[in-house]
Amino acid sequence: MTLHEDIRHIFHQIRPLLITCLAVLLPALYVLSGFYSVGTEERGVILRFGKLVDDQVLPGMHYHWPWPVESVRTVPATTLRTLELDFSASAPAQLQPELTTGDEDLVDMALLVQYTIGSPGRYLDSAEAPEALLEQLTRAHTIAYIGAHAIDPLLTVGRTRLQNQLTLDLQRSVESLALGLRVTSVQLRRLEPPPSIKAAFDDVARARSEKQKLIQESAGERNTQLARARSDISALRANAQAQATENLERARGYQERFIANWQAHQEAPALSRQRLYLEHLEGLLGEMQITVLTP
């Protein structure tokens, strides 16, 4: 008996056993293929015949109906992602790299968008490239905001408002487009005049600072003079009040003296007339220098 015949003989003997093993093993492997795991920073998305069933499968071991009934895709949903947008570096060659403000000035700008995947199901099915669409939305909202505001607030007190407003606008846009993203923050990396006009802008800023300084100094001098004037007014008012009180008291004294003289005159007219005459004569003689000559 040749080797070939021996192999055929052995195969015929074990073929029933092989068929039995395959009949048991293949279904078991098919059933076991439904087990899957989701990482700690991931979320599982279950599709049943291509239709979304659940997009918030938590980390751990899970089971789903094997293919072709169900399929599972995992998405790093809790990972904080970053989109960097530099308008100077990413502007097309035919367009200016700077942004135009509402008062027709130019600014050079770069920002950072941080986001996560809030709805893994929408993220996988809504758009082919959600990140690219987010970049276009960021560019459009930024250009619209910069074009509606003057350069001075943008470079000074308006930076925080710019970041907050862009965050709200981007979140509303991604929700309206059902991209499944959650925008957490927008951070300015650079917001300044472009190098071509920076020297002139610095001169304007320096002149504005000097103007503000002069205004503050003038306001300080004005306040000092006003305080001095108020002090002088208070002193004059106090002196006038004291003088008025003194004159009033003197007038009351004159009044009382006149009334007393009048009452005395009513009681003894001749005596009163004589007394008044002597007092008047005494007053005149008291002011005169009298020299007595003897013959």
TrEMBL record:
<dbReference type="InterPro" id="IPR036013">
    <property type="entry name" value="Band_7/SPFH_dom_sf"/>
</dbReference>
<protein>
    <recommendedName>
        <fullName>Protein HflK</fullName>
    </recommendedName>
</protein>
<comment type="function">
    <text>HflC and HflK could encode or regulate a protease.</text>
</comment>
<feature type="domain" description="Band 7">
    <location>
        <begin position="33"/>
        <end position="205"/>
    </location>
</feature>
<keyword id="KW-0645">Protease</keyword>
<dbReference type="InterPro" id="IPR010201">
    <property type="entry name" value="HflK"/>
</dbReference>
<dbReference type="InterPro" id="IPR001107">
    <property type="entry name" value="Band_7"/>
</dbReference>
<feature type="coiled-coil region">
    <location>
        <begin position="197"/>
        <end position="246"/>
    </location>
</feature>
<keyword id="KW-0175">Coiled coil</keyword>
<dbReference type="GO" id="GO:0016020">
    <property type="term" value="C:membrane"/>
</dbReference>
<feature type="transmembrane region" description="Helical">
    <location>
        <begin position="17"/>
        <end position="38"/>
    </location>
</feature>
<comment type="similarity">
    <text>Belongs to the band 7/mec-2 family. HflK subfamily.</text>
</comment>
<dbReference type="GO" id="GO:0008233">
    <property type="term" value="F:peptidase activity"/>
</dbReference>
<dbReference type="Pfam" id="PF01145">
    <property type="entry name" value="Band_7"/>
</dbReference>
<dbReference type="GO" id="GO:0006508">
    <property type="term" value="P:proteolysis"/>
</dbReference>
<keyword id="KW-0378">Hydrolase</keyword>
<comment type="subunit">
    <text>HflC and HflK may interact to form a multimeric complex.</text>
</comment>
<keyword id="KW-1133">Transmembrane helix</keyword>
<keyword id="KW-0812">Transmembrane</keyword>
<keyword id="KW-0472">Membrane</keyword>
